[in-house]
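Figure 2 data, in text form.
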Amino acid sequence: MILRKGILLSVLFVFSIINVSRAQLFSDTELEILKLQDMRSPGENNSLLSYLNSSDDKIVIRTLWALANTANETTVDNAGAVLESGRMDEIKSAAAFALGQINSPKSSEYLMKALNSESSPKVLAAVIEALGFIGTKENLSELSAYKNENNEVKAALGLTVGRYARRNIKTTDGIAVLSSIVSSTLDENALKFTAYGFNNIRNKELLEPAREDIMKLTKSANSFTRMWAFSALGYIGQKADMDYAFSVFGKEKDWYVRVNILNSMPIYYKYNKDITENRELALMLERGGDADNINAGITSLKVLGALYSNVDEKRHEEILSELNGMLLADYFKSNRAIDWQIMAEGINTYGMIFKDKGKDNLIAKYRETEDYDLKAAVIRALAYCTDAAVYNDIRDIITKDVQDYAKKNNITSGDMVSGPELGKLYRAFVETLNDLKSKAKEKDRNIMRLIFSEFTGSKDPAIIDVCINALSDSMYAASTGETGMILQLDYNDLRYPKDKEAMKLFIRAFAKFRPSDAPRLLENNFQYNDYEISFESAAALKTITGKDFEFRANHKYTFDDESLNKLADKRYAILKTTQGDIKIKFYLEFAPFTVLNFIKLVEKGFYNKTVFHRVVPNFVIQGGDPLNTGWGGPDYTIRTEIAPVRYERGTVGMASDGKDTEGSQFFVTHTPFYHLDNRYTIFGEVVEGMDIVDRIYIGDVLETVVITDK
């Protein structure tokens, strides 16, 4: 069982109020509120607001959550009135939460008034947290003078300063709040959020006066406090602090603390250029493949590349020579049993450091390996070459590979991407071309433009996205008309709904390139009765013609009361991966529509044999894409569901491309990430198998998902 640290008190109050019955998860009134929330509607005659007068506390709280999700400015006085009422603390806390999501000047007025009149620590904490989302710089100044000895309130203050900083409001007032907490409490939870606040400041001048406070936090018993404190210390950039962090690194037991220490090294380098002459540091980073955690190992190699990619070759001749031999031995020619992901990162690091001098070794590795992930890694590593003509070498080796692949697999179709392995090569190729184009001569730039234009016809959203972005570069402005015509022709080859994601990319591109037939093609899209396609098409038409286009299209995703209430018997999911099992507890109360969508996809076998396509150390593992590229999903989207719950370690959330664009992709957090709160739907938490989450890396497979009630 994984125990979550620093869990929200607002979560605790929710569970004390909303007691889930297995017989019926939601009452009829709650179902009506949920429907209005999903419709983003106040209901006929503002029926949603009438529920604020209910004598049932559960109904009032559910209504306030709905107001937070609809975020309609016209409801600010309704939420404000509840905050000022004599209702129980849990209800007033929910009102503060709602105000924090309604972007109105009146929201902060209500919250600041409550700050000065409220006595309940629970409500005060909710008020302060809400200010972190919508409060002004002046509000932060007032918070710096606010005094309260309650540790729950102090924790909220630390978190709120961090959230202000994420909104780029960073002041000496914020630092004063954080330092005051360090000097006035030993409460681990309050200090954890204070470390989070310091970490998000990321400004040397502001952080320097608080250096001793931050140093204290690096010695905390709480690993997340240490993690953020070491990161904050790096932004100050003192050599003595770097030496201290380096000395702690080898003794630190938690990999995510080590990752933050590693990530601070390039920041120290900004102020201490001589650290790259430290042979011991270089060799420690190179040995990333020996790390006991894949995330720490990959981060180590990334940092090595960042530090040594542009050093003075003469001054670093001996270290570079040693690194050259070690990287080749460990990641090019090694027979050690290391993960391919570590090997790929070693290849990338080699390319970063040695650039053109490493070209021959990289190409030799491409030809030697039969692993298409490693081939793709080589292609991306060649992007660091200063001579952009290397694209000719890349094109030659890929061409031969494609021919051999087609012959071996007896491929006769005319599809450009005729297999997943070729997709990996082509994606790496266009990404590398995009990186090289600014370094290329004019003749080569034009050839690259033609290659990008060819690949817009690939029907692969990941490839198309790179190519359209590349063709949008100002260096190709003279070819806008030609590009528009090519996009128009390629668009005609797409088929709905199979190519829906690709269609959306082309629709957005039409607004920029404006090919002659774009208005007709865009208007034709209304026939599909697809809300997303219609919305994108109407927006593009408005840009092209200046006119508003009305459309009627329904969201494809639907729900019913019976299915929602049956969730009471489907409380857990077991993700069966190639690394082991991960057990998730669903947050049925916070995100019922999302949980229902996830379960329905599981029952269809949608997630079977998908891979974890994105892993960011100390952040998330992400999966749930049937294309395994980050561009796939079902042919519909669902609404974002926000609730008073935080992204702690092991939280399960929905990936999205903006509000109300969730589909099937989900992620699990390695560590707390509070800047995701109320932006991405939280629908569960890992209760068993966090050690498996820590071992997951790109390419690991989600074999199947099992839904259970216990």
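Caption note: The two ends are 13 Å apart (CA to CA).
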